[in-house]
Amino acid sequence: MSFKQALAEGRPQIGLWLALPSTESTEIVAAAGFDWLVVDGEHGPFDLAVVKSQLLAIAAYPGVEPVVRVPTGLGGYGEAELKRCLDLGARTVLVPMISSADEAREVVRHCRYPQPGVDGSRGVAGARAAAWGRDREYFSRANTDVCVLVQVETVEGLRSLDEIVAVGGVDGVFFGPSDLAASLGLLGRPEAPEVRQAIEDAIGNVRATGKAAGVLTRVPESAARYIDAGATFVAVGTDAGLLVEGSDRLREAF
Questions:
Q1: I need a surface site. Which of 74, 105, 209, 238 has the fewest CB within 10 A?
Q2: Active-site residue, selected from the candidate residues 2, 43, 156, 224
Q3: Nearest to 249 by CA among 237, 241, 218, 190
Q4: Which DSSP category does 115 fall into?
Q5: Mean pLDDT of 118-142
Q6: Nearest-angstrom CA–CA distance, 41 and 19
Q7: Which of 80, 65, 94, 92 is nearest to 125 (CA)?
Q8: Per-residue pLDDT tens for 147-200?
Q9: What is the DSSP secondary structure assignment for residue 236, as one 8-state letter?
Q10: Using one digit for the tens of pLDDT, what is the confidence trace for 24-70?
């Protein structure tokens, strides 16, 4: 079952964030059996060559979906970033800081090829995703296969949530606790009760439409609460966080 299909069916998918540009650490966490891994091109030190190496590392584990977070999905730069990541073979993209339905529609348009009845602007090339032009069927199925996840992480985005979720082609909405906390005047407090409650309420609103809702938290209790609230794709930590926590514990033990 594909990641996109699992989200459509409401099957919880547990993931992990990749902040380290290392194929070895990526292979280690991919082998753990997470359902999805985020290649963080927004805050992580990932150029396109590193994104490609991460995709190749994850490809050795067919049950793990690589989700590429681009720096932005808006404007000409955003369109170029989405196009190039999709051409590298990413099937699922995560786009940060979406605050309106118009912005969500722009992202969807950048991820779709123009076809009859489809408002798409993705450029066509025989790139890696199409097996360098050998996979002639890729172009006919790509619009269906690509999974578009948008991030709502501001008060303005929460106010526009109903309109964002209603945009055709948006497969899921991801809530970023850290940026949302900052937008709520609680910078550095992603686990504040006000932030958790806002996200739980938003998850319920998204799930009521039949679409998928996601979130990141390194706190197990919060992850359980978000899943109980209906979250379908939940990232429960980061590779860098695991290294920090593990090395701190080991040092303290000795």
A1: 209
A2: 43
A3: 241
A4: B
A5: 93
A6: 9
A7: 80
A8: 999 999 999 999 999 999 999 999 999 999 999 999 999 999 999 999 999 999
A9: E
A10: 999 999 999 999 999 999 999 999 999 999 999 999 999 999 999 99
What is the set of domains in the chain, with CATH numbers? Answer: 3-253 (3.20.20.60)
Contact 104, 135 (CB under 8 A): no
DSSP-assigned states of every residue in 184-230:
TT-TT-TT-HHHHHHHHHHHHHHHHTT-EEEEE-S-HHHHHHHHHHT
The span from the CA of 158 to the CA of 164, in Å, is: 9
| pLDDT score of 190 | 96
State yes or no: is 43 an active-site residue.
yes
DSSP H/E element including 150: strand 147-152
Containing 164, the helix (H) or strand (E) segment is helix 161-165
Cα(16)–Cα(22) distance, integer angstroms: 15
Question: How far is residue 107's CA from residue 150's CA, in Å, rounded to a whole number?
Answer: 8
